[in-house]
Amino acid sequence: MSLPLLLLLLYVYTAPSSAADCDPADRAALLRVKAQLGDPVRLSAWQPSTNCCAWDPAVICDAAGRVTALALYSLPDVSARVPPALGDLAALEILQVVSVPGMSGPVPASFANLTRLRDLDINGTSISGPVPGSLLAGATKLSTLAIANSKLAGPIPASLAALPNLRYLDLSGNLLTGAIPPGLLHGSFRFLLLSSNQLTGEIPSGYGDDDVDTINLSRNQLTGDPSPFLFGITKPSAKIDLSWNALEFDMTGVRFPHHLRFLDLSHNRIRGRVAKSLMDVRLEHLDVSYNELCGEIPAGRFMSAHGAECYAHNRCLCGTPLPPCSTSM
Ligand SMILES: *[C@@H]1O[C@H](CO)[C@@H](O)[C@H](O)[C@H]1NC(C)=O
Ligand SMILES: *[C@@H]1O[C@H](CO)[C@@H](O)[C@H](O)[C@H]1NC(C)=O
Ligand SMILES: *[C@@H]1O[C@H](CO)[C@@H](O)[C@H](O)[C@H]1NC(C)=O
């Protein structure tokens, strides 16, 4: 999640903070967090005997003085493991850790105690190891799970598919391997962001009937034919990015959903012709470059929006916006 969203969240949650004096157990836990981070300069406002609900950055409390949100961001001088004391903030609903490049190690087992957690957003750290199973067991309220641009390794646990409230899953920019678990795509995700990992295997087919905003699986090593999966999306789905994989299928007869706004299939091994169904899709962005497509590009309706560059480096495409097909074709 971006910094503006983070600040917005903080703004939304700031209101009750100043009123309450902070819970002593939560203050003690935060001071342990600070110590476990090696007393970074930026947390110098975190002092005993002051109201932790007013600490900046960035502690948010509820009316009872329980810490419900914590944002740790831009701590370049930290070089430490993920503080286990974070797991002692029992009322925590939102935890954001952004741009703390020296925070490393696995997500500690104590996170299993964060049973109220709705939003875990970690971006730009050195957190490593597998996607934390302990967390998944306790966090049935989790609606946002984002551990991006870190060093998570190993497979994506199938148990993620069982989290009932998950709407936003971002594990992009890690070192994840193995297949996308079947069932993961059956949930009601609005955002499924798994780009820039080392995922292999086929994209599971049979997407559910839920609205999907963005699916970004680009820059992996995914193989096979994702068109059953593309067919299956029956409700609005704005963006699909499957670029930079090893997908192999014949595009000719694929019927793309007409509500798509963004489609990037570039840098794969897609063959056949450019699908005629794209004529009916009002795409703001199309890219099928660097594939093995051949034949005349369909003309008409929404096709005129797409320039030559989105068809570049294919086997033998021709027709507007590329040079005309030779009559012998
Ligand atoms: C994560 O951080 C990077 C920079 O470190 C930024 O470019 C990116 O937009 C951030 N992503 C999210 C999802 O916050
Ligand atoms: C969870 O909290 C309980 C009670 O504070 C504690 O005894 C236990 O060690 C914690 N679990 C983990 C995994 O840290
Ligand atoms: C998908 O992820 C890649 C790499 O993280 C990024 O460059 C690209 O812009 C993303 N695509 C969309 C549609 O957001």
UniProtKB/TrEMBL annotation:
InterPro entries, sorted: Leu-rich_rpt, LRR_dom_sf, LRR_N_plant-typ, PGIP
One Pfam family in the UniProt entry: LRRNT_2
Signal peptide: 1-19
Top-level taxon of the source organism: Eukaryota
Leucine-rich repeat-containing N-terminal plant-type domain boundaries: 24-56
This protein's UniProt keywords: Glycoprotein, Leucine-rich repeat, Repeat, Signal
Subcellular location: Cell envelope
The UniProt record lists the keyword Repeat: yes
Main location: other
Keyword presence, Protein biosynthesis: no
Similarity comment text for this entry: Belongs to the polygalacturonase-inhibiting protein family.
PANTHER family noted in UniProt: LEUCINE-RICH REPEAT-CONTAINING N-TERMINAL PLANT-TYPE DOMAIN-CONTAINING PROTEIN, POLYGALACTURONASE INHIBITOR 1
Protein name: Polygalacturonase inhibitor 1
Organism: Dichanthelium oligosanthes
